[in-house]
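ok so heres the complex, two chains, lmk if somethin looks off
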Amino acid sequence: MIEHLKQKYLEEAHDLLLELEKTLLLLEENPADSEGVEVAFRVMHTLKGSSGMFGYQQVSELVHLLENGYDTIRTNKQAVPLSLLELSLESVDHIRLLLTEDTTNTPATEGAHRLLLKRAAELLYEMPAPEDERAMPAAPAGKSLRTWAIFFAPQQDMLKNGSNPLYLLEELAGFGGFRSFSCTGQLPPLTELDVQQCYLSWMLLLATEAPEGDIRDVFMFVEELCQLQLEPLGEGDLLADLKEEQLTALADKIALALDKESFAAYVRELKTTTAQVKPVVSPETAQETTAQLASGVKEKSVTSIRVASDKLDDLMNLVSELVANQERLSLLAELSMMPELAGVAEEIEKITRQLRDKTFDICLVPIGSLLTRFKRLVRDLSQELGKNIAFEAEGMDTELDKNVIDSLSDCLVHILRNCIDHGLEAEAERIAKGKNPQGTILLKAFNSGTNVVIEIKDDGRGISSEKVRNKAVEKGLIRPDQVLTEKESLELILMPGFSTAQSITSVSGRGVGLDVVKKKIKELRGEVSIASKVGQGATITIALPLTISIIDGLLVRVADTDYVLPLSFVEKSYSVTPADLLNTKNNQLILDGEPVIYFNLAEAFSAGSLSNNAFGVVIHTGTMRMALLVDEIIGEYQAVLKPLGKFYQEQDFLSGGSLMGDGTVALVLDPQKLIQEITKNRTIDI
Amino acid sequence: MSKVAEQTINSFLSFKLDRETFGVNVNKVIEILEVPHITKIPKSPAFMRGVINLRGTVLPVVDARLKFGLKEIADSVNTCIIVFNIQVAKEQVMVGALVDAVQEVFDMDESQLMPPPSIGGKFRTDFIRGMARNEDDFVMMLDVDKIFASEEIINLQQEVEAVKA
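and the predicted structre for the whole thing:
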């Protein structure tokens, strides 16, 4: 149980760190952004609390110091000093380290930890002390005693979340004069009472010097688990002014019923009784603050939940199964000639389609979720290397399957490192070349057909194909007399054992190079390509298929097996008779007066000879155009792609399988890989 | 399934391949299927019969006869697919095995298993966990994890003879 909770804490902590990092990077651009400071403070506060609770004392002590810093800035409405941002970012990294169990207690991390604490303490010392009175714009200047009425109604399941309202009340009582009135109206008879539920709500009166923020902070961890309303009753300690009889009468009323409306009524009542004695805060100000608070709460209510990816995979499987069965049902309904059944089948088809689309949608994650990591990387590296670099991102809402995003992240980091280290010049060099002193890296993602394309473009030195070629010859990767196109030469840098860096820096060039990227992308069934103009920059393009995807395909049959050809590759189809093939040269068919290389799938797949009424499907892969000969064309088909699994990894010309309406499996072809496979073992007849 | 279950289940499923009877622990078996339409995968070894649709997932099917170096025969009414849950490189993978016929589930204590005799390294006996006597029949107990993790054809005939000798 504890392990389970701890796991949850760790997940949450990582999320918080990510949010903090994002906020810090934004603050760096605009240090005076008070909203950003507020967010940073809140995130730190939450992190501190939960870290302490799960025994990560080192985390909580470090965050505590930083939090104090942001609190000061928050109350003084200052800009955040860059030194603090720097320290905070380093701390984020350090905390990530602390959260990975096994590194916690090594002497190195201990040392780093003490150093960070010391620096944080020093920084704090230099900062001006918080001035509470400026914290509350609504409050008049000067520290003064105010009386608050607080409505606090926990949700019934608050106790299950490990929060105890009693502690919160005790903490509040510590602020000053305190009276609590509980409402017991919701309490069920003893026989129906569930001891794990909280049935009580409270109206609290508090006379304190503490600002509103401090009172709210008490409820910080239960914000989402309760209804909370703060209402100023007036200046000074009004508790002393209230007569005991009045309070008892109030307590009796509250005991019976307490909700937002009655709370407001009680507050009005108290105000009128105390009004003769003290002035009341103008109603407009009160309204304004509540309106602000209400909008703040609204923003937060866009909720999301965490789901284990296994569960999503299960859901995916079930939905695909449903789709297959629904197709079967539609087919049967059509054959049955029963109008009622046809109606039901149609309705189910509609619902199934919606369900399927929603499920696909759930499994997709926008590339933008990686953005913070990249921004941070560019920032840190450009500082380390003393380069002036702007990082731009486009199309960050382009979505990819979650698993693909995870593997992609490392690849993109690797490429970005290369851009920053090797690609972009230092400022002086850029000025000398007459370029904009600030280098630019553009990360761009977009959908193209059934692919998602990701481009990383820099405006640096560019890659010289000649240099690459010479280096490859030197390293023995190619023969000196080998003829290569410009593109092929450039792509030599993706080969294992190639590294163009003149000297090895701490950033990149450790021998493992872009070949790792190529391998990883290939595992995702994607492609990497490079384009460059010397002096103007380089572009690395990654094209990835959407793994969990519906492929719009053309269903064809070869012998007794169904194949799906992605429609995006299909150009045209023709009827082909044995006579057409009789007098062909160099495997070329004349279609519409043009020669097209053809390829007999039945032969290639050892599936016997082609039927007499065969078809040629012309496909186009960007570089190649060829006709695939098949026995039959069945029609258009939406294929839900399923992996073929471990046992069929060798057959990479198949993207996967797709379940058909009749319960069989059709194979989805990857035309690009298929052509590679075909041309691989072929010699050219001259 | 947890390790505890693996230790305590002493039930075995026996099936026929050619003239021999083989057994596997039932905790490795998920279900037994009739032979549906199997989609052949081009350019794959002959013992890989293809894939079928198992309630929404694509299940690879291995022809046990060919995998064990036996002669190919036409499928009969008794031919069926045993779906195994096996462990390959620390991963749980499902695979179907086409066998001539399934026979029965019988209980036997693991300790009654006769270990394969060591036979001077002439034949590998990794794939057979031992031999058991079920009524009048000898049953070869198979280690399905190892069998399906290997990508080659296993000459089981030689193994069987080695064990029997």
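quick notes: Chain B has four helices and ten strands. thats all i got rn
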